[in-house]
């Protein structure tokens, strides 16, 4: 997760995850040979426009393990998990600069359906 969220100090990261888990945030990971290769953080909730939705907050594969199928396997697990939980949609946001991630999501059958706008509050 540090690769995806380098701006968050390690000490703060654990606290943020624990706090988010109180709000339904879950972690899933793919492990091989005792090493975590890919990890996802996600939530399931209901949205007016899309119904029951699995939202992927975080999905990352260790840099040295990319293109080895770990991310695809975890993504496929997330899709199946969403279906088992009665979700109508699986969604995520991806930084505009993450071109390789965008190719991955498009190759996995996702569509670009909106723009995400943000206003930073002090």
Describe this protein's structure.
The chain has 122 residues and is an alpha+beta fold. The chain has a single domain, classed as Aminopeptidase, CATH 3.40.630.30. It contains 3 helices and 4 strands, in the order αβββαβα. The protein has helices at 10-21, 70-84, 99-107; strands at residues 26-32, 35-47, 51-61, 89-92. A 4-stranded mixed β-sheet has the order 1-2-3-4, covered by helices on one side. β3 (51-61), α2 and β4 (89-92) form a beta-alpha-beta unit. The model has no long low-confidence stretch (mean pLDDT 89).
Which fold name fills CATH's third level, the topology?
Answer: Aminopeptidase
CATH 4th-level superfamily: Gcn5-related N-acetyltransferase (GNAT)
Order of helices and strands: HEEEHEH
CATH architecture assignment name: 3-Layer(aba) Sandwich
Helix content: 25-40%
Round the mean pLDDT to the nearest integer and report it. Answer: 89
* Count of discrete alpha- or pi-helical segments spanning 4 or more residues: 3
Q: Any idea what the radius of gyration is? A: 15 Å
Strand-residue proportion: 25-35%
Biggest sheet character: 4 strands, mixed
The strand order across the widest sheet is 1-2-3-4
Outline = globular
CATH class: Alpha Beta
The count of DSSP E runs of length 2 or more, i.e. the number of strands, is 4
Number of domains: 1
Report the end-to-end length measured between terminal Cα atoms: 25 Å
Structural class by SSE content: alpha+beta
Low-confidence stretches: none
Describe the structure concisely.
It is built from 3 helices and 4 strands. The protein is of the alpha+beta class and 122 residues long.
